[in-house]
UniProtKB/TrEMBL annotation:
Residue ranges of every copy of the UvrD-like helicase ATP-binding domain listed in the record: 185-528
Protein name per UniProt: AAA family ATPase
Source superkingdom: Bacteria
Lineage of source species: Bacteria, Bacillati, Actinomycetota, Actinomycetes, Propionibacteriales
Cellular component GO terms, alphabetical: cytosol
UniProtKB keywords: ATP-binding, Helicase, Hydrolase, Nucleotide-binding
GO MF annotation list: 3'-5' DNA helicase activity; ATP binding; DNA binding; hydrolase activity
SUPFAM superfamilies (alphabetical): P-loop containing nucleoside triphosphate hydrolases (SSF52540)
Source organism per UniProt: Kribbella capetownensis
Hydrolase is among the record's keywords: yes
Sites where the protein binds ATP: G206, A207, P208, G209, T210, G211, K212, T213
GO terms of biological process kind: recombinational repair
Length: 685
């Protein structure tokens, strides 16, 4: 997709390539027509199986037709491999694209980038040619017109490093709107992760701009290609940090031909019902793994010790189950199962003893009798007294409103201060009217699963910015994906939450994916080396154990640090934004959350037309200049970034230096830092 890609061969060859593109497009249109016009078989009958099959057929049809639509701005192929004669069946040349296209006879015209024969496009080198003679990369206009190509011969003398030039041009192509795919230039270390098998899970630690998000999204597309059947049963979910981020990445998978992947935030998925906010310390404690033990104890404290037996009457006959027999049943069931099945089993086991008594008297009761006894009043009375029905909200409401109950459940797990942070100052009268925070809803989720096992059948889970998730959130996500696998992406240096787990071992442990392969990406593609070197001065303070990333490119005048006084501060911000708007691509002004709207007003007063990120859904599509609250910058990138007053970003939150590291690493080409207060010590050295 590089406009500037130039032809090394004559125009005839470019014309021939264009003619091939036209032929491939016509073939795709024919494939679409074939599927679109096809009747979907409908099986008669209305039972569940038949309905299920009809619905599945309909879904498959819709998916297939959508996948075959020729998107006007997505080129049909982006590369070509010329193989040695006879290397692959009957073909000595393949075109590689985002999906498979064949001609009327079924012969392939474009091969899906995920197919095994496409692998050398990403992996073949001059020292390991994999039978490839030539790699060709194409340049396209924004409307998918072929503008040129560059050749990289893998034999003969080296002309120049065409691959690097192509990668650089691709990275620096000005951004307009949401994130694009990187399918034409996936790097070998990224490709290893994209094509790693579905199991075991994969965890990627990577510095800013090393391509973690891109790897996660391409990996989903790859897995849906190789494991479509398995994954279509359980589904795939991508979890990102917030709506602005999801909006930013939303077009990548559709461009790769995958339209049916759910992309959500953890709050939307698990905490829909959240209405209350937590103090930071309460949120931290609520996210801590020790809460799992506290909740477990609180729940099981509802199971009491029987103080009476059961007397069951049928006509004139009476059957007695003694108190110590009930006690024995309770202690054998206690904590050996989840809470609700334990409660049911208690009634069934008491009923079973009654049945044995009946048999001792030569009666011959059957299962129906056992069920009837289990549901009878005397059995239910003991069941309700000893093992009452409970609701998650009831347990949590009591825990946060009753200091003694909390102290008992907490035992040695929580300090007095931590318990005080959890207790509500004004508890709701009843659990039904309690207002829950996002962290509470995750605890409710944990309780719900301890009461009744949740299904956990998700096929694959991608967690982006996973360094920010709490232990309790990770447990909730892991439960949804018990048999499936995960791709966990993040950077410990960018952890900004108070409840962050702090190490990948811990993250994977809470997620119950300790078998995951942990890999590291350290080549920074997004951020020019001068900027990454500058930001990395913060690493000894924020993540001393992490390696220092290396930027793969330098860009002239990439970084400027400008000191201003109170009076000139706004003018300098406006000037920096105007200068960057004079070039191409996206521009962001990033400031502390509580400063951003005032600065946005100043930009408007200076005649600029910025949008405020987070105000709606798709601001980055509509305008080149966005004002970004520092707390929403994570995961995003812009061609040019103007950072206002770093000291204020740092002061705004306990992990403010981590936040600043995130903010400083959003720029693809230029970063201006404008400040009146001194920069953090590490940066001013
Ligand atoms: N192989 C590649 N080819 C072209 N561009 C790439 C490649 N890898 C990364 N990039 C560029 O780097 C950008 C950053 O990628 P991505 O957002 O996936 O990084 P990240 O590691 O998730 O960063 P962060 O930690 O800041 O969220 C991409 O949008 C793209 O511009």
């Amino acid at each position: 997709m590089v406009d500037s890609a130039h032809t090394l061969a004559g125009t005839d060859e470019l014309e021939a390539e264009r003619a091939f593109l036209t032929e491939a497009r016509a073939a795709l249109a024919r494939m679409y027509g074939d599927v679109f016009g096809r009747e979907i078989p409908v099986i008669g009958g209305e039972d569940n199986d038949e309905r299920f099959t009809n619905e599945a057929n309909q879904r498959a049809y819709e998916q297939r037709t959508r996948a075959l639509i020729d998107l006007p701005d997505v080129p049909l192929f982006f590369g070509r491999l010329d193989y040695e004669a006879g290397a692959i069946e009957e073909l000595d040349r393949i075109y590689i694209g985002r999906r498979h296209v064949h001609d009327g006879t079924g012969a392939p015209l474009v091969i899906d980038w995920r197919a095994p024969v496409s692998v050398p496009f990403y992996r073949a080198t001059r020292s390991d040619r994999q039978q490839v003679l030539l790699r060709r990369r194409y340049g396209f206009s924004d409307h998918a017109e072929l503008t040129g190509f560059e050749d990289e011969p893998l034999i003969g003398t080296v002309v120049a490093d065409q691959a690097d030039a192509f990668l650089r041009a691709e990275i620096e192509r000005p951004r307009t709107g949401p994130m694009r795919d990187i399918v034409a230039t996936i790097q070998p270390e990224q490709d290893d992760l994209v094509r790693a098998p579905l199991h075991p899970s994969v965890c990627v630690q990577g510095a800013p701009g090393t391509g973690k998000t891109a790897v996660g999204l391409h990996r989903v597309a790859y897995l849906l290609y190789t494991e479509r059947e398995r994954l279509s049963r359980g589904g795939v979910v991508i979890v990102g940090p917030n709506r602005s981020f999801l909006s930013y990445i939303r077009k990548v998978l559709p461009a790769l031909g995958e339209v049916d992947v759910r992309q959500t935030t953890i709050d939307e998925w698990i905490s829909q019902a959240a209405v209350a906010a937590d103090e930071p310390e309460a949120a931290r404690v609520k996210g801590d793994a020790r809460m799992a033990t506290v909740l477990h104890r609180a729940l099981w404290s509802y199971v009491g010790t029987p103080t009476a037996g059961v007397l069951y009457s049928k006509g004139s006959r009476r059957y007695r189950v003694h108190e110590d027999e009930v006690r024995e049943i309770v202690s054998s069931l206690r904590e050996s199962t989840r809470y609700a099945p334990g409660r049911n089993a208690l009634a069934q086991r008491i009923a079973h003893v009654v049945l044995v008594r009946m048999e001792e008297r030569a009666e011959s009761p059957d299962d129906r009798v056992q069920n009837a006894v289990a549901r009878s009043k005397p059995v239910r009375e003991v069941q309700d007294a000893v093992w009452p029905r409970v609701f998650p909200q009831q347990v949590l409401h009591r825990l946060f409103s009753d200091a003694d109950f909390l102290a008992q459940a907490a035992g040695d797990e929580l300090t007095e201060d931590e318990r005080a942070a959890l207790l509500w100052t004004k508890p709701a009268r009843s659990w039904k009217s309690a207002k829950w925070s996002a962290a509470d809803t995750v605890l409710l989720d944990e309780l719900e699963d301890s009461i009744e096992r949740s299904s956990g059948s998700l096929g694959h889970l991608v967690l982006d910015e996973a360094q920010d998730l709490s232990a309790m959130q990770l447990r909730a996500l892991g439960r949804r994906c018990r048999t499936g696998s995960a791709t966990v992406l993040g950077d410990l240096a960018q952890a900004t939450t108070a409840w962050a787990a702090g190490s990948w071992d811990r993250v994977l442990g809470h997620l119950e994916k300790s078998d995951a392969v942990v890999a590291e990406l350290d080549r920074g593609f997004r951020v020019p080396a001068q900027i990454i070197d500058f930001a990395a001065k913060l690493l000894p303070d924020i993540a001393p154990t992490l390696g220092v990333p290396t930027g793969v490119r330098t860009v002239e005048a990439a970084l400027s640090v400008i000191e201003a006084d109170e009076r000139s501060f706004v003018d300098k911000l406006v000037d920096a934004c105007k200068t960057d708007l004079g070039g191409e691509g996206s521009v962001a002004l990033i400031a502390a959350d509580d400063q951003v709207s005032e600065l946005m007003d100043a930009l408007v007063a200076a005649g600029l037309e910025p949008a405020l990120l987070g105000a709606g859904e798709e601001e980055m599509d509509a305008t080149r200049l966005v004002c970004v609250p520092a707390s929403l910058a994570k995961g995003l990138e812009f061609d040019a970034v103007v950072v206002a007053e770093p000291a204020r970003i740092v002061a705004a939150e306990p992990r403010g230096l981590h936040r600043l590291y995130v903010v400083l690493t959003r720029a693809v080409s230029r970063l201006h830092i404008i400040h009146t207060e001194p920069l953090p010590a590490a940066l001013s050295q």
